[in-house]
């Protein structure tokens, strides 16, 4: 098994105000994966990324990038990392070409016009290379931010809320670009509020809540482990209340009493479906359709950030 | 050393100066020219010599420094403050570039601008008055060192400042008055007591005196005192900058 490209051990951060932003986070990111860090506002996502990139100083713990400690060997560590911050912070009076070339030089790479041209073309920015940043739309500026982060060919790219405030088309473009980056061997860590984004792109997902990593795992495995299924029974006649004979299964009514919903663990030894259906037959409750629904990553996320780990 | 990083910042800053040529070069030169017209030609003709030097020529070194000191602070402070203001500082903080490399790049660019400004001002002066330079090499060295001192001060101010107003406070309310009172337009010998003694508390007097010596070999204070003041002017802001980077003051949380 290969070594992690990013290894975070016992990372803590307490700001001057006393706010404890990170409470001993442990996380390994493997080369070539797309990792999504989910969490509500103020959970510690940006603090975590900022510490890895050297923008914020950790209170405790270690961060190593490809084996290089990001404090004692900051040069080697930072050379491997690219960051696209959440805010669109740009030099308004610079041209696209100048600002992307500047980023490459800043990260210690020699001038390479061909490489810059390649990056700008991949991000559909080539036609805008002579435009000043202030002349670009928000979406274009976002692309330039990505181009700047890619200019020094990082092995590990952080995208902090990359599609926040961008239209659906550009979001799809971004997703496609991230997949291409991964295909080129770049490891991508993204933070997002959009569960759909994590579900669409990530190999692994981590959920951070109040500075703690409360869930971590392969996306499919996490959904399987923490997600539950719902059996939906479409009734012939609506029910005003759930019959007391069904209480042991705890179903709930939806659609004005026309749908009986039973949540079950599909990986448990017994799902309870058989007993429930037999009891429904005994009660002579007619039904016209049966369907099951897997809880989404969003359901898992919502339950986790509300502290209901077992309620998913 | 991350030479590519240093070069990137240096050229970036110089390119910005190129885009704002009116502000960074033309405006100071016009202002200084006006001083030459008013103090050199109009008033200077009625003034007696200063320590044996024609008054119009006497004020040339001081006027060069007047422009250099304020512009050094302005250029260096703006260079580091602007990324803080726009938020692009994240890129600098996340780059594999050390604090010393960052200072070399930003302060190096600001010093370059100041030296160019000084030389253009000097050339402009020659249009109005005859200028002799007794020690041209020492003059250039002194110019570079004085610019470095005030660019370092400007860099520290740029990190300290939280808004544009704070950026202007030190150059406008401290450095400019001290420079005017630091013997730019007169020799301390022309002052009566107690001002002749009081003025010696002004550190800029020592810099102006030393710089003027490279032109005319005349001094208001001993040359060794000027050298000591110059060394202190470099060491103090440098110490502050080292502390800033060690603690992350107003740069990192």
Automatic annotation (TrEMBL), chain A:
Residues 6-235 form the ABC transporter domain. PANTHER family: ABC TRANSPORTER ATP-BINDING PROTEIN. The keyword ATP-binding applies. It comes from the Bacteria. InterPro entries: AAA+_ATPase, ABC_transporter-like_ATP-bd, ABC_transporter-like_CS, ABC_transporter_ATP-binding, P-loop_NTPase. Keywords: ATP-binding, Nucleotide-binding, Transport. It holds the Pfam family ABC_tran. It comes from Sphingomonas rhizophila. Transmembrane segments: none annotated. This is ABC transporter ATP-binding protein. GO terms for molecular function: ATP binding; ATP hydrolysis activity.
TrEMBL record, chain B:
It holds the Pfam family ABC2_membrane. Residues 19-248 form the ABC transmembrane type-2 domain. It is found in: Cell inner membrane; Membrane. Belongs to the ABC-2 integral membrane protein family. The chain crosses the membrane at residues 20-43, 55-83, 137-161, 167-186, 221-245. This is Transport permease protein. Coiled coil: none annotated. It is a multi-pass membrane protein. GO terms for molecular function: ABC-type transporter activity. Keywords: Cell membrane, Membrane, Transmembrane, Transmembrane helix, Transport. InterPro entries: ABC-2_transport_permease (IPR052522), ABC2_TM (IPR013525), ABC2_TM_bact-type (IPR047817), ABC_2_transport (IPR000412). GO terms for cellular component: ATP-binding cassette (ABC) transporter complex.
């Amino acid at each position: 098994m290969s070594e992690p490209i990013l290894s975070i051990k016992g990372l803590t951060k307490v700001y001057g105000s006393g706010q404890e932003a990170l409470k001993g986070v442990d996380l390994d990111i493997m080369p070539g994966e797309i990792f999504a860090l989910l969490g509500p506002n103020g959970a510690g996502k940006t603090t975590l990324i900022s510490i890895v990139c050297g923008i914020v100083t950790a209170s405790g713990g270690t961060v190593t990038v490809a084996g290089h400690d990001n404090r004692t060997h900051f040069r080697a560590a930072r050379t491997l990392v690219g960051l696209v911050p959440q805010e669109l912070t740009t030099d308004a009076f610079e041209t696209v070409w100048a600002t992307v070339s500047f980023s490459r030089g800043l990260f210690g790479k020699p001038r390479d016009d061909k490489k810059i041209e390649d990056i700008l073309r991949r991000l559909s920015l080539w036609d805008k290379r002579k435009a000043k940043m202030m002349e670009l739309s928000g979406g274009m500026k976002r692309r330039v931010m990505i181009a700047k982060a890619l200019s020094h060919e990082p092995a590990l790219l952080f995208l902090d809320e990359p599609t926040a405030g961008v239209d659906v088309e550009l979001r799809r473009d971004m997703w496609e670009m991230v997949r291409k980056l991964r295909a080129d061997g770049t490891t991508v860590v993204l933070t997002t509020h959009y569960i759909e984004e994590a579900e669409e792109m990530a190999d692994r997902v981590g959920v951070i809540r109040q500075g703690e990593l409360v869930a971590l795992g392969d996306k499919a495995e996490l959904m399987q482990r923490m997600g539950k299924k719902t059996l939906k029974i479409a009734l012939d006649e609506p029910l005003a209340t759930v019959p007391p004979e069904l209480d042991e299964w705890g179903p709930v009514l939806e659609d004005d009493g026309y749908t009986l919903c039973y949540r079950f663990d599909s990986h448990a030894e017994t799902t309870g479906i058989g007993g429930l259906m037999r009891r429904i037959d005994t009660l002579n409750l007619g039904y016209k359709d049966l369907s099951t629904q897997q809880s989404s990553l969003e359901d898992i996320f919502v339950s986790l950030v509300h502290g209901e780990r077992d309620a998913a | 050393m991350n030479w590519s990083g240093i070069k990137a910042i240096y050229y970036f800053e110089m390119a910005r100066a190129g885009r704002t040529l009116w502000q960074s070069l033309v405006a100071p030169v016009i202002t200084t020219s006006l001083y030459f017209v008013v103090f050199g030609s109009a008033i200077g003709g009625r003034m007696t010599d200063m320590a044996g030097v024609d008054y119009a020529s006497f004020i040339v070194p001081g006027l060069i420094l007047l422009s250099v000191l304020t512009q050094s602070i302005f250029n260096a402070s703006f260079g580091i403050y602007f990324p803080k203001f726009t938020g692009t500082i994240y890129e600098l903080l996340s780059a594999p570039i050390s604090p010393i490399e960052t200072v070399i790049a930003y302060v190096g660019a600001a010093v370059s601008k100041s030296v160019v400004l000084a030389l253009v001002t000097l050339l402009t002066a020659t249009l109005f008055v005859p200028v002799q330079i007794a020690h041209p090499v020492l003059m250039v060295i002194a110019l570079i060192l004085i610019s470095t001192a005030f660019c370092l001060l400007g860099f520290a101010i740029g990190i300290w400042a939280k808004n544009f107003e704070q950026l202007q406070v030190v150059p406008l309310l401290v450095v400019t008055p001290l420079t005017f009172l630091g013997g730019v337009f007169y020799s301390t010998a022309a002052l009566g007591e107690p001002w002749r003694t009081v003025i010696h508390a002004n550190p800029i007097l020592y810099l102006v005196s030393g710089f003027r010596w490279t032109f005319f070999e005349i001094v208001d204070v001993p040359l060794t005192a000027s050298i000591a003041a110059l060394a202190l002017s470099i060491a103090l802001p440098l110490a502050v900058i080292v502390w800033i980077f060690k603690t992350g003051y107003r740069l990192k949380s």
